[in-house]
């Protein structure tokens, strides 16, 4: 049976394949961009055959620094592309079973491409929705 902690760790491990991107399976007190933070959002229990399948939704908050707006946007754009060496979707889906921990997963959406304040600093960020199917 999959656990939220194991799924978070598996997603963060897949993201670590992106060169230069830090990953966090838990919310850091002070994020150090560029960083992708894996956060659970919801769990739908018993979606098939009474305990046969649960559906998890995670959000991967990807934050980049804004020292130079154009550079920050170009970096975040690369993470948002559906394919390529810096694609969040490609990295997460590189092992769709997270080493056998889950049945399947998909990155279904990129949303909220915007400025995000963290403490006294404003960063540029985007969220990626990951749907995970596990028993």
Task: Give a description of the structure.
The protein is built from 3 helices and 5 strands, in the order H-E-E-E-H-H-E-E. The protein is α+β, with helices and mostly antiparallel strands and 135 residues long. It has one domain (4-134): STM4215-like (2-Layer Sandwich). It has a 5-stranded mixed β-sheet with strand order 1-2-3-5-4. The protein starts with a helix and ends with a strand.
Short synopsis of the structure:
The chain is α+β, with helices and mostly antiparallel strands. The chain is built from three helices and five strands.
Sum up the structure in keywords:
alpha+beta, STM4215-like, five-stranded mixed β-sheet, 43% strand, elongated
What is the topology?
Elements: H1 4-15, E1 22-24, E2 35-48, E3 53-64, H2 69-80, H3 88-92, E4 104-118, E5 121-134
Parallel strand pairs: 1-2
Antiparallel strand pairs: 2-3, 3-5, 4-5
């Amino acid at each position: 049976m999959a656990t939220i902690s194991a799924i978070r760790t598996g997603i963060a491990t897949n993201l670590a394949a992106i060169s230069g991107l830090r990953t966090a399976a838990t919310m850091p007190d002070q994020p150090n961009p560029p960083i992708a933070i894996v956060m659970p959002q919801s769990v739908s229990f018993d979606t098939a055959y009474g305990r046969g399948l649960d559906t998890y939704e995670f959000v991967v908050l990807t934050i980049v620094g804004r020292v130079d707006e154009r550079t920050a946007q170009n970096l975040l754009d690369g993470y948002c592309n559906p394919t390529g060496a810096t694609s969040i979707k490609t990295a997460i889906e590189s092992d769709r079973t997270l080493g056998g921990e889950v049945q399947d997963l998909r990155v279904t959406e990129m949303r909220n491409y915007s400025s995000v304040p963290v403490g006294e600093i404003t960063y540029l960020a985007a969220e990626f929705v990951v749907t995970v199917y596990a028993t």
